[in-house]
Write a structure and sequence with these properties.
0% strand; 131 residues
Length: 131
């Protein structure tokens, strides 16, 4: 009897198993999302890490903005930041000449105004230094 019914119904077929890959797609999307967020976080960290303050530029700006009102204090400031700023031999020679000329403004109680030749030498050195 069972065979008789199946022979009459030709439209019904056996159950076919359909492969289900949705779980792999789901985990793949989670992995790609995690990877993308990790790349974005690392890019943001790298961007802010490269925003470090350039100390040489700060020293250069301090030297460039000296107003020459207090000669003794300015002589010490020029000496300090010029020593921190120089790198190569040519700059060292010029800076040492300038620092030697500034010695007369440092160790006295009363000092005259800084001369124009010293100001010109400082401007020359600042023009040579690459920041």
């Amino acid at each position: 009897m069972n065979e008789d019914i199946t022979s009459k119904i030709h439209d019904i077929k056996d159950i076919v198993e359909i492969p289900d890959n949705s779980i792999f797609i789901y985990y793949g999307l989670i992995f790609l999302g995690f990877l993308l967020s990790l790349i974005i976080v690392l890019a943001i960290i790298k961007y802010f890490k490269n925003k470090k303050v350039n100390q040489r530029k700060i020293y250069f700006d301090i030297l460039q903005n000296i107003e020459f009102k207090n000669s003794k204090e300015d002589a010490y400031t020029i000496t300090k930041y010029l020593r921190l700023l120089i790198k190569n031999d040519r700059e060292k020679i010029l800076a040492n000449e300038l620092i030697n000329e500034l010695e007369e403004y440092k160790y006295k109680k009363e000092v005259p105004q800084i001369s124009n030749s010293i100001k010109n030498k400082l401007n020359t050195i600042l023009g040579i230094i690459d920041v």
